[in-house]
Write a structure and sequence with these properties.
alpha/beta, Alpha-Beta Plaits, 2 domains, globular
């Protein structure tokens, strides 16, 4: 195993805390898929083995961590996991990517992408993710070509096809492979296989990039991203695992699982308010609808969500 960094490694954050919002420990199987978990793992291994060699876009989430782990198992040094470190990646996620690569024996490299140099990204249009993924895949394709890797792969699973994901178009344009989809795996399969292999992300909550906390049309800035990152870390320090802090100018809108709302108000509201105001927010609010992944998409018209992801 080797781990390479182009620049410096960030200091480790506070130790993770167990608590509210943990993913289900017994993910449901897909009713129309008769394969066992072991058979699904065998299919995933076969799909990745067929690449010959691969660069994996590795974000330290449950999906890409499983892909990187299996690639390392079946391809050895012919597999390289690459994490893109930029202002849109939470500091904790970069630290965890380094830790996971070390513990799982994954060859790992950190690169530094520059999506915040792109005015189309900074304008925060509804297809912002397309511009981010284009920047990432541009780098990974060049790296693969220069170093002799046959393909680039990501961690998209079948469930992702049912969501609004503009980055899918960028993957298509760069011929990026999706081994989880090719093996016919949904998110529950990813968690079950990860648990079988003792991959620590088996129950890790989903974690989108920090820019997804800013309403469409409001500009992305490094200052906003740092403020969001520190605000979410402050809530994790209080014991919450699944959460979002949405950035509405002077207002921080906290999303937590609905089952956590009462305990948050009675036990942690004062401390959370104090910490988030210290970061520059004037007002701190709690969303009574609870945590919703992709809640910023709720303002988009139906035709935007229905059209093919990507493009303009």
């Amino acid at each position: 195993m080797r781990i390479e960094l182009d620049m410096l490694t960030p200091s480790a954050p506070d130790a993770p805390v167990c608590g509210l919002g943990m993913a289900s420990a017994t993910p449901a199987a897909r009713p129309d898929d008769p394969r066992t978990i072991e058979e699904k793992l065998a299919d995933l291994r076969e799909a990745i083995r067929g690449y010959g060699s691969v660069v994996v876009a590795f974000s330290a989430g449950a999906d890409s961590t499983l892909v990187a782990k299996v690639a390392a198992d079946v391809l050895g040094d012919r597999a390289l996991a690459v994490t893109s470190a930029s202002e849109s990646l939470a500091e904790r996620e970069l630290t965890e990517a380094l830790e996971y690569a070390e513990s799982l024996g994954i060859n790992h490299r950190v690169i530094y992408t520059q999506e915040l140099q792109n005015p189309d990204y900074l304008a925060n249009p509804t297809n912002r993710c397309y511009h981010c993924k284009t920047e990432l895949y541009d780098h990974l394709v060049v790296l693969a070509q220069e170093e002799g890797y046959a393909t680039v792969a990501n961690g998209l699973n079948l469930d992702d096809l049912g969501d609004y994901r503009p980055g899918l178009q960028a993957a298509k344009e760069h011929d990026v492979r999706a081994p989880l989809q090719e093996a016919g795996l949904i998110k529950a399969d990813v968690r079950a296989i990860s648990k079988l292999l003792d991959v620590p992300t088996w129950d890790k909550p989903a974690m989108a990039c920090l820019s997804s906390r800013v309403p469409y049309g409001e500009s992305i800035t490094p200052e906003k991203l740092r403020q969001i990152d520190h605000a979410e870390q402050a809530l994790r320090d209080l014991g919450y695992r699944q959460l979002r802090v949405r950035h509405h100018g002077q207002v921080a809108r906290i999303e937590l699982p609905t089952e956590s709302l009462v305990s948050f108000v009675t036990e942690h509201a004062a401390a959370a308010t104090e910490r988030l105001k210290a970061l520059g927010f004037q007002y701190v609010s709690l969303d009574l609808q609870g945590f919703r992944s992709g809640s910023m998409n709720e303002v988009l018209p139906a035709k935007t969500l229905a059209r093919p992801a990507g493009g303009s």
